[in-house]
Design brief:
Length: 190
């Protein structure tokens, strides 16, 4: 790992995204070089994996070399803070990628599973059709309580009906929706 760091320090590669700072003095170079083993242990304690720790250390070294060190900062504290912040950034990025992979609708319209998308559209169509068959008073209450998440008391005030009426209409609406959405083969007549 130290060789990668020294290569990064001494000779920037063509097309690299970092900026080489020849003005950084030799004592800073020595300090950072001496910090590498400690930073590597710290990176390992954060990641739990030597491969990920080495990647984190490399990203940390790159940041240390490409960003100006604050004048009043202790290099050791600053280096560990940079390492921690890089790790936090990587964790957040991983979480965003994982969430996007688990929720294809977040990937700018890219449909990962066409069968799932078609099934979802059919279900939405069935629910929409079942909602349309409800009486207006039940549809309003389902919309305000179930879709908008409003409390019964607020719905009662909006519709100017008693709270008990809201609850009974909601119960009837839920039963009607459940019956409309239950496949005929699963229904049991009571």
């Amino acid at each position: 790992m130290e060789e990668k760091f020294l290569r990064l320090w001494n000779k920037p590669e063509a097309g690299s995204s970092y900026c080489y700072h020849p003005a950084k003095n030799k004592s800073m170079k020595q300090q950072i070089t001496e910090l590498l083993p400690r930073l590597r242990r710290f990176a390992y304690s954060l990641t739990g994996s030597m491969d990920e720790a080495d990647d984190l250390l490399q990203n940390t070294a790159e940041r240390l070399l490409t960003r100006d060190t604050p004048d009043d900062a202790d290099l050791t504290k600053w280096a560990f803070r940079v390492c921690r912040n890089v790790w936090i950034d990587e964790c957040r990025a991983r979480k965003v990628r994982r969430d996007a992979a688990e929720q294809p609708e977040l990937t700018d319209g890219q449909i990962v599973d066409g069968q799932h998308q078609i099934f979802k559209e059919i279900e939405w169509s069935r629910v929409d059709s079942a909602m349309a068959r409800l009486p207006v008073d039940q549809r309003q209450i389902i919309s305000l309580v179930a879709l908008q998440g409003m409390p019964y008391k607020v719905v009662a005030e909006i519709l100017d009906v008693p709270k008990g009426t809201v609850m009974s209409r909601l119960a009837r609406a839920r039963i009607a929706l459940s019956e409309a959405l239950t496949p005929v083969t699963m229904r049991t007549d009571s």
